[in-house]
């Protein structure tokens, strides 16, 4: 057992129950439960630091608490050089995917940077960058992975890049407005929304406050109400994390997101990150009101939330202690996440909803 997994097990299990006997993980545990439906995971992160891959980590991000904390518990890739580290991360992801059902598909996500007023990339302000070409390259290695591009609409070549990645198989565009400096309500980017519609691509955008990666430009850009413009333009929007976290005078963003579902049939959410301790109340609310799952997609948020901030034990009351023990022993992070949701009685059709919302996902790779 490596140091990261040991640290994670201590915190994720010993914190809730002070039970050190649970540190061990079983590669073939009894707790695995999978839906009979095909599984579409719309939220899988590719991380990297190798400049040869086009990746960029700012000095500010390298020194951040978020990255240092993650490295304690998440294997971001071990190796002497950035190239070896990136390859180790990809190999680990591929090994876990190999253990998933053949019907599983995951959208592998890029992350664009911040652009200045002339539309040029501003590395001085950008926290980190995972380029589209790296995503396309890694996704091509496994038919279970489908590329999800990231394009800041303020970049000078945004429309060209949108057409390019769409032609190469990208099915969504991913934003974190809070850290990318994007105002979704800015009418200046309506042509970008029109481009998404013409190409049949979905906008997967972070909603709610953002603290996982740090370095937010403006937390107010996570207000789900700002998504009204792309929704009115006809864009299919998936609000990542269901806007859990933060709020304003109109109430919590999570509650505002749920209200918006009644007004916009082209709005969906994903449940990525809702197993975090401080967001678990949102997932509990959804589980107790299962009709919301008709508008939700499955997203694992791999690997960002496989830290002590998540544990099956945070859902005691909805699952038993004995079942939480079984789930905690599952070695494969992705299998453990799916199995936990199954034990929480997440409706099985929800696991396939990504295929319905992201139509291009159905034929990706064919």
Helix content: 25-40%
CATH topology: TIM Barrel
Mean pLDDT: 88
Low-confidence stretches are: 4-13, 15-24
Query: Strand order, biggest sheet?
Result: 1-3-5-6-7-8-11-12
Radius of gyration (CA) equals: 19 Å
Word description of this protein:
- This protein has a single domain, classed as Metal-dependent hydrolases (TIM Barrel, Alpha-Beta Barrel).
- It has helices spanning 3-17, 59-62, 65-73, 82-98, 132-139, 158-167, 177-180, 190-199, 228-232, 253-260, 280-288, 321-328, 333-343, 349-357, 360-363, and strands at residues 40-45, 56-57, 105-109, 128-129, 145-149, 172-175, 202-206, 237-240, 247-248, 251-252, 267-270, 296-297.
- The strands form 3 sheets. Strands 1-3-5-6-7-8-11-12 form an 8-stranded parallel beta sheet. The protein has a two-stranded antiparallel ribbon with strand order 2-4.
- It is globular and about 60 Å long.
- Helix content is 36%, strand content 12%.
- It is built from 15 helices and 12 strands.
- By secondary structure, it is of the alpha/beta class.
- α11 links the parallel β11 and β12 (296-297).
- The two termini are 38 Å apart.
- α6 packs parallel to α8 and α12 (321-328) runs antiparallel to α13.
Overview in brief:
With 366 residues, the chain is α/β, with parallel strands linked by helices.
Summarize the topology.
Blueprint: H1 3-17, E1 40-45, E2 56-57, H2 59-62, H3 65-73, H4 82-98, E3 105-109, E4 128-129, H5 132-139, E5 145-149, H6 158-167, E6 172-175, H7 177-180, H8 190-199, E7 202-206, H9 228-232, E8 237-240, E9 247-248, E10 251-252, H10 253-260, E11 267-270, H11 280-288, E12 296-297, H12 321-328, H13 333-343, H14 349-357, H15 360-363
Helix pairs in contact: 6-8, 12-13
């Amino acid at each position: 057992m490596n140091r990261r997994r040991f640290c994670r097990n201590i915190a994720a299990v010993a914190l809730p129950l002070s039970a050190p006997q649970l540190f061990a993980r079983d590669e073939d545990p009894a707790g695995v439960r999978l839906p009979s439906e095909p599984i579409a995971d719309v939220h899988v992160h590719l991380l990297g630091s190798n400049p040869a891959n086009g990746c960029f980590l700012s000095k500010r991000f390298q020194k951040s608490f978020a990255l240092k904390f993650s490295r304690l518990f998440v294997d971001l890739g071990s190796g002497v050089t950035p190239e070896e580290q990136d390859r180790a991360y990809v190999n680990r992801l591929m090994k876990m995917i190999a253990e998933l059902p053949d019907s599983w598909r995951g959208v592998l996500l890029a992350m664009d940077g911040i652009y200045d007023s002339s539309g040029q990339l501003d590395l001085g302000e950008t926290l980190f960058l995972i380029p589209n070409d790296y995503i396309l390259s890694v996704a091509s290695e496994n038919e279970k992975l489908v590329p999800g591009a990231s394009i800041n609409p303020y970049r000078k070549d945004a429309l060209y890049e949108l057409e390019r990645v769409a032609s190469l198989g990208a099915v969504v565009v991913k934003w974190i407005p809070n850290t990318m400096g994007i105002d979704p309500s800015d009418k200046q980017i309506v042509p970008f929304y029109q481009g998404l519609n013409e190409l049949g691509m979905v906008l997967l955008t972070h909603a709610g406050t953002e603290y996982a990666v740090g370095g937010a430009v403006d937390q107010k850009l996570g207000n789900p109400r700002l998504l009204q413009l792309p929704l009115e333009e006809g864009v299919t929007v998936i609000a990542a994390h269901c806007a859990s976290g933060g709020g304003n005078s109109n109430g919590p963003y999570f509650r505002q997101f749920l209200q918006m579902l009644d007004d916009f049939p082209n709005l969906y959410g994903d449940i990525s990150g809702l197993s975090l301790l401080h967001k678990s109340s949102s997932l509990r609310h959804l589980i107790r009101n299962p009709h919301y799952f008709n508008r939700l997609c499955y997203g694992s948020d791999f690997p960002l939330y496989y830290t002590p901030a998540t544990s099956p034990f945070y859902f005691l009351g909805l699952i038993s202690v004995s079942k939480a023990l079984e789930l905690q022993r599952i070695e494969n992070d992705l299998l453990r996440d799916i199995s936990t949701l199954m034990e929480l009685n997440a409706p099985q059709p929800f696991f396939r909803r990504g295929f319905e919302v992201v139509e291009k996902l159905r034929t990706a790779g064919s």
